[in-house]
Design a protein that fits this description.
Layout (H helix, E strand, L loop, with lengths): L1 H8 L6 H11 L2 H5 L3 H6 L4 H7 L4 H11 L4 E5 L7 H4 L7 E6 L8 E5 L6 H16 L3 E4 L5 H11 L4 E4 L13 H10 E5 L11 H12 L2 E4 L7 H11 L3 E4 L10 H8 L3 E2 L3 H7 L26 H10 L4 E2 H8 L3 H13 L3 E3 L4 E4 L7
C-alpha cells in the first residue's frame, strides 16, 4: 500500500540510501514495517532510526494521502510501473515521487537544461532556443523551475507546444520561487511537476542537490548553458557524469564569468555543442530518428540588412560579447548621442540588451514580436 511507503518516507533521517537498504533487505515497505528490531538492526538501521520508525507522525501521512486524492495528483512508488525507468537506474533513486500533471510524460526521452539563476540575456535566449528546437524532435525538457536558465528552458518547451518537467526542491503544495507560480501552472498543462519531498516541505539548501540528481537522472543527457565555477548547475552536470549520462556544455567568452563553469566541464570531457543538432547527433541510437513535432513554428531570423546602414554597422562592431558604450563609441567613430540613440532603438526592437555596469550585448537574430 502507498501508505506504507509514506510511513518509511516520513521517518526522519531515513534518506533514499537507507530506504533502499530496507527494500533490499525486506523486499517491500510493509515487510520492513513488520520486521523485528533485531532484523532492522541487522539491515543496518541504528536504534535511533528504529525508534523513529515506530513513532511516525500519522497526521503527515494523512496530508500526503489527501493531497493525492485531488485531480492530477499522483504518488508513484519505486516499484510502480509508471516510475521512470532512467531514474530507477541511478544509485539512490527517490523511493516515491509526488507528481502534479500527466505522469505519463515521465516515460518520455528527455534532456535536462540547467544554468545560472542570473544569466546574460544571450544565455537566457540560448536556453529557450535549445529547448524549443529539442522539443520539436520529441524530447522532453527537464529543469528545476529556478529563475534564469531553468525558467527559459521551461518557457522554450512551452512555446514550442512541447513537453516539460519541473523538478521541485519543496513539497508540491508550494511553488519555489513564488514568482514562477504562473509558469508552474503552465507546466502542469503540458507536462508535470515532480518532487521526492512530502507535502509541506519548505525549500532548504540541502534539498537542491537532491533535486539536481533527479533532473539528471530523468534525462538522457544534461545541457549546461551558463554556469559559474561554483554553482548548482555544475553539481547537476557532475551527477549526470556519475550516472553515466551525457553532459553537454555551451562555450562562451573568456571574459564572461558565467562561461567558466561550462569551460571547466569541457575540460572534464563534456561535449561542446553549438546547436540542437549536435545533441541529437550525440543521442542517435538512444532516441527515435529525429522528426519534428507537428505544430511547432520555427522562427525565421531577421537579417542584418533590414537595418539602416549605421545601425547594422554598430551591430557588427558589437560582436556577441558584452561591450561598454565607451568602447562602442571608440570603435564606431560615432558620437555618444548617436550611439546611445541607436542602442535604445535596437534594444526596443529586441536586437540588443542592457547589462549592468553600462554594458550592452547583441542578441541572436530572431523574430521581433
Amino acid at each position: 500500500m502507498t501508505s506504507d511507503w509514506l510511513r518509511l518516507l516520513h521517518v526522519e533521517g531515513l534518506g533514499p540510501a537507507r530506504f533502499q537498504q530496507l527494500l533490499d533487505a525486506f523486499g517491500s515497505p510493509v515487510s520492513a514495517l513488520h520486521a523485528s528490531d533485531t532484523e532492522l538492526r541487522a539491515s543496518g538501521l541504528s536504534q535511533e532510526l528504529i525508534h523513529r520508525l515506530h513513532a511516525v507522525d500519522e497526521e503527515r501521512i494523512q496530508k500526503d494521502l489527501e493531497w493525492a486524492d485531488q485531480p492530477q495528483h499522483h504518488l508513484i512508488t519505486l516499484q510502480d510501473e509508471k516510475y521512470p525507468a532512467l531514474l530507477r537506474l541511478i544509485d539512490t533513486p527517490p523511493p516515491l515521487l509526488y507528481v502534479t500533471g500527466d505522469c505519463d510524460v515521465l516515460a518520455h526521452p528527455g534532456i535536462g537544461i540547467v544554468g545560472s539563476r542570473n544569466p546574460t540575456p544571450a544565455g537566457r535566449e540560448i536556453a529557450q532556443d535549445f529547448a524549443q528546437e529539442l522539443t520539436r524532435f520529441g524530447l522532453c525538457i527537464t529543469s528545476g523551475l529556478a529563475m534564469g536558465i531553468d525558467t527559459a528552458a521551461h518557457q522554450g518547451a512551452l512555446r514550442a507546444n512541447g513537453v516539460t518537467i519541473a523538478v521541485a526542491a519543496t513539497g508540491l503544495d508550494r511553488i519555489y520561487p513564488s514568482r514562477n507560480r504562473a509558469l508552474a501552472h503552465e507546466i502542469v498543462e503540458q507536462g508535470a511537476l515532480i518532487s521526492e519531498f512530502p507535502i509541506g516541505t519548505e525549500a532548504l539548501a540541502g534539498h537542491f542537490p537532491r533535486r539536481n540528481r533527479i533532473i539528471s537522472g530523468l534525462s538522457l543527457g544534461t545541457l549546461v548553458v551558463e554556469a559559474a565555477l561554483r554553482s548548482g548547475s555544475l553539481i547537476t552536470a557532475h551527477q549526470a557524469m556519475e550516472q553515466g549520462r551525457e553532459v553537454f556544455a555551451i562555450p562562451g567568452s573568456i571574459h564572461n564569468p558565467l562561461a567558466r563553469g561550462c569551460h571547466q566541464l569541457l575540460r572534464e570531457g563534456a561535449k561542446l555543442v553549438e546547436s540542437a543538432a549536435d545533441i541529437l547527433e550525440e543521442l542517435a541510437g538512444k532516441i527515435a530518428p529525429p522528426s519534428p513535432r507537428e505544430g511547432g513554428h520555427k522562427p525565421e531570423p531577421i537579417m542584418i540588412d533590414d537595418l539602416p546602414a549605421d545601425h547594422a554597422g554598430l551591430l557588427e562592431k558589437m560582436g556577441y560579447d558584452p561591450i561598454s558604450i565607451d568602447r562602442l563609441i571608440q570603435l564606431s567613430g560615432l558620437t555618444a548621442e548617436e550611439v546611445s540613440s541607436m542602442l535604445l532603438i535596437m534594444e526596443l526592437e529586441g536586437r540588443v540588451a542592457t547589462l549592468s555596469g553600462g554594458f550592452y550585448q547583441r542578441l541572436k537574430p530572431r523574430d521581433i514580436e
